[in-house]
TrEMBL record:
Compartmental location: Endoplasmic reticulum membrane; Golgi apparatus membrane; Peroxisome
InterPro entries on file: Diminuto-like (IPR040165), FAD-bd_PCMH (IPR016166), FAD-bd_PCMH-like_sf (IPR036318), FAD-bd_PCMH_sub2 (IPR016169), Oxid_FAD_bind_N (IPR006094)
Record bears the keyword Cell membrane: no
GO function terms (MF aspect): Delta24(24-1) sterol reductase activity; Delta24-sterol reductase activity; FAD binding
Protein name: Delta(24)-sterol reductase
Gene3D superfamilies for the chain: 3.30.465.10
Pfam hit, one: FAD_binding_4
Keywords: Cholesterol metabolism, Endoplasmic reticulum, FAD, Flavoprotein, Golgi apparatus, Lipid biosynthesis, Lipid metabolism, Membrane, NADP, Oxidoreductase, Peroxisome, Signal, Steroid metabolism, Sterol metabolism, Transmembrane, Transmembrane helix
Reactions the enzyme catalyzes: lanosterol + NADPH + H(+) = 24,25-dihydrolanosterol + NADP(+); 5alpha-cholest-8-en-3beta-ol + NADP(+) = zymosterol + NADPH + H(+)
Biological process terms in GO annotation: cholesterol metabolic process
Main function: Catalyzes the reduction of the delta-24 double bond of sterol intermediates during cholesterol biosynthesis. In addition to its cholesterol-synthesizing activity, can protect cells from oxidative stress by reducing caspase 3 activity during apoptosis induced by oxidative stress. Also protects against amyloid-beta peptide-induced apoptosis.
Membrane disposition: Single-pass membrane protein
Amino acid sequence: MDTAMWKKKLVRLMEDNRGLIVLLFCLPASFVFDLALQLRNWFNRTFLSAPQRHDARVRHIQSQVRQCNDLPETEKKKMCTSRPNWLSLSITFFRKDLCHKIPIPLYDILELKEEVMTVRVEPMVTVGDITRYLIPKGYTLAVTLEIADATLGGLAFGVGMTTYSHKVGLYQETIAAYEVVLGDGSLVRVTKDNEYSDLFYCLPWSHGTLGFLVALELQIIPVKPYVKMEYIPINGQKEYCDKIRELSGAMDKDKQTPDFVEATIFSKHEAVLMVGHFANVKNAEEEAQINHVARWYKPWFYKHVEGFLNKPPSQEFIPLREYLLRHNRAIFWVVESMIPFGNNPLFRLLFGWLLPPKPAFLKFTTTPGIRAMTFTKQVFQDIVLPINALEKQIDVAEEIFDAYPILVYPCRIYNHGPHTGQLRPPRPDQMCPGTDWGMFNDLGVYGVPGPVKRKERFDAVSAMRKMEKFTHDVGGYPFLYADIFMDRKEFEEMFDLVAYERARKKYHAIDAFPHLYDKVKPEIDVFQVGKEYMDPL
């Protein structure tokens, strides 16, 4: 038997016993790994944290950038942060070994500005950090990602979207200012109204290819201690799609919309819509409806939601921070593909406190072979698509992946004019009448495609290229934390890089930082790997 066949048999063995492997080895190791990270973070914050030293640390970063610029031509390379790939939430592994790596040890919350409703933070502050800091003070970020380990700087130079985005848009729309060290070592404060306004619109979706982020100022909103959640089960694709558009105010700028809107689609014809409002708990009857969804022994949130499919509309109260991080334990529903029995009540009671497996640990232990295998056997995609094509999105996703549940978050995409960033303005038929925005949505597809579960032939490359073509045709965009399958020409057709290329030239990025396409493209040969792992045993 040749090596390729042995490799496929080993992969199949691991797939068939993945839950046991994860339980016996990965979860305990991930727990220890997380303890070590927490100890490191505690040490950093106890002994190294010093917001008053922010300026000195930024000057040191500037000095390192200038030193790189002063190197002989034979020693010059592009620059990137020294943060290991395994600490990021991106699926890809950018070749940092080919760059000069600049440490960015900036982990502090710098200033709460209640008079203008913003908070100034360093880029390595996480969602977990900021929710612990803001919620007791009666605030939260206008856009708060559901994964505690996500960094605020990573979201700023990447993208973020949540269930509040139908009111405010993408994470980038809630950023008041960026503080950036450019490729020549200069420090600039970038806002939409100052002399760096052209750079302001290019920094989102740039993934660190225009400069080093050293601080940012984010919009905050006032909150109440709980979210009053309503669960609305709907049968019929047109019915639930129309309801999502109605609740989000997609075509009615004057509609009074809920604070939070999302949908979990369990099949083409079944979905549960969730509507949330900031709330206080006023009496004993409402106290009895409090549900601590984040506790280790509780059902995974999407399984909890699935339980409402055959019930009448229902409501409950969820503590705010638990609501904001409701998908953290199961990483939406990705953990189910790792531990198929993970939502079993006995497992949750005995081992639920070990969840979720740390994304950092999973990446830290990812070998090239595992990376190649998971690339062809799983799908992790968030795609921004126009909500007027929601029915078609679901049909195409089912045809290509046959993977449920599917996540839907409505989100405004603003028209800032042509060539003002990497996203093109919404098309006229996608605009909400009388506004400067169109309603789009995140289509989240995560887990193991149906053909893989059924041990059928699955061509991951062909599937993703079909999805990318559909995305391009309807005027959408894939999140770039995940694998892309476009060549450079196709990438430049999908994204508007006119302003980005101007900014690279104007702000000294061409020789200092990798190009966006080179930064986000998979580090593996997707076509070769896809061919190798495509055929079933």
